[in-house]
Amino acid sequence: MNADVVCHTLEFCKQDAGRPLCHLYPPPKVAWELTLKKARHIVEKSQTLKYPRSNSSICSLPFLAKICQEIKSAIKKSVPFKDSDSDKYSVFPTLRGYHWRGRDCNDHSKTAYPGRRPDNWDAHQDSNCNGIWGIDPKDGIPYEKKFCEGSQPRGIILLGDSAGAHFHIAPEWITVLQISLNSFLNLPTAVSNELDWPQFSGITGFLDSTSGIKEDSIYLRLRKRNHCNHRDYQNISKNGASSQNLEKFIESLSRNQLLDYPAIVIYAMIGNDVCNGKMDPVPGMTTPEKLYSKVMETLKYLNSHLPNGSHVIFYGLADGAFLWDHLHNRYHPLGQLNKDVTYAQLYSFLSCLQLSPCQGWMSANKTLRALTSERAELLSRTLKTVATREKFTNFNLFYLDFAFQEITEEWQRRGGQPWQLIEPVDGFHPNEVASILLAEHFWKKVQLQWPEVLGKENPFNSQIEQVFGDQGGH
């Protein structure tokens, strides 16, 4: 009996009529049907392994039922589950709380939240949650006015997919040699964040990198440039997001044209317009015409919600041919102990179950991988054309290529290997190192080509630190 038998017995893996048997490991020496029958008999007789055969969802486990309900609510609305004043900001970290957008400094006042212009220069209380408030007793001038007026504060907002949210399954959860009592301490946080780790992402991350890489996220770079930007970040990303379904959660974005500061919005739907799990993925890929239509809807929405002086930057799509080229013959964490599962086998297994996040690139079919890359390039060119031709009243529009080749070369110059830039468990997403290197590349490009996007460096940063320290932290 092996993991495949357990998976099929508990019906987490299913074999539809007429479909081949999906297995990750070599099949049992005994006939498959006989092995499966014995395993099911063990489960049926066990008092501790009872499970609802008709619905084997992990949420059917009693101790996870409540948290699953909370997660489903947060996922559907893409706004904080715990938000007393309904201003779309929270004092709770997960369930779309401050891991995703700046921490609220007053969850009982709808007029106090990150990113707003200060109320009466925050002379008596902090209305924009940047930790700068009160009056300097030396001259009677409010600190917010003294340190932030004319400094061009701005926030960072990401409209993204699972890559932007930093989807991550920890290898120590599934790797035999790494499992210990401490392996699952972060599992509740991960589950309540939809297995995403936005607090470490390259665009809106604010916690120290777990990978040891020294570079900062784009948000932390903006904060370092101007401390008045403290806590002004929003990660409006969703697993499975694409240009075609962004409209379902874009309203979770928080920006008031009259009351708030401008924002830098990064549109980074880097894969799901060409990625799906269908056996023939090509018909399900977004066409340039459909992309153009949906992107224009998104831009019109942003123009009606962003304060004047904002900026929107398109990221092109990734070229996922990188995945097969650098991973297919390497051992997956599940196969490292016995050297029996490669990424090629994982991709085939997910494809068989029709659960592949990207059949087009996670495939041994070279022609299919090339077709997927061609469509991704075509869609990127469409975004670039839109950025070149279209004009809007409240923001400037720019385009940047998704420069994975460039950051791969940079990583190799540092002594790394290309495969080390991909999430080891899913074999698909850019990992934390890649995300931070992409942020560094983004910053350098924007600083060189469109420095006005980033705003000025605040000459009062050191004084802000002297008076307010870490400004209340994150």
Describe the secondary-structure layout.
Blueprint: H1 3-9, H2 32-45, H3 65-77, H4 143-148, E1 155-160, H5 162-165, H6 187-192, H7 218-225, E2 233-237, E3 263-268, H8 288-303, E4 310-315, H9 321-327, H10 343-352, H11 366-389, E5 395-400, H12 404-413, H13 432-449, H14 461-468
Parallel strand pairs: 1-2, 1-3, 3-4, 4-5
How would you describe this protein?
This protein is α/β, with parallel strands linked by helices and 474 residues long. Helices cover 32% and strands 6% of the residues. It has 14 helices and 5 strands. The protein has helices at 3-9, 32-45, 65-77, 143-148, 162-165, 187-192, 218-225, 288-303, 321-327, 343-352, 366-389, 404-413, 432-449, 461-468, and strands at 155-160, 233-237, 263-268, 310-315, 395-400. A 5-stranded parallel sheet has the order 2-1-3-4-5, sandwiched between helices. α1 crosses α2 (32-45) and α12 (404-413) crosses α13. It is globular. It starts with a helix and ends in a 6-residue tail after the last helix. The mean pLDDT is 93.
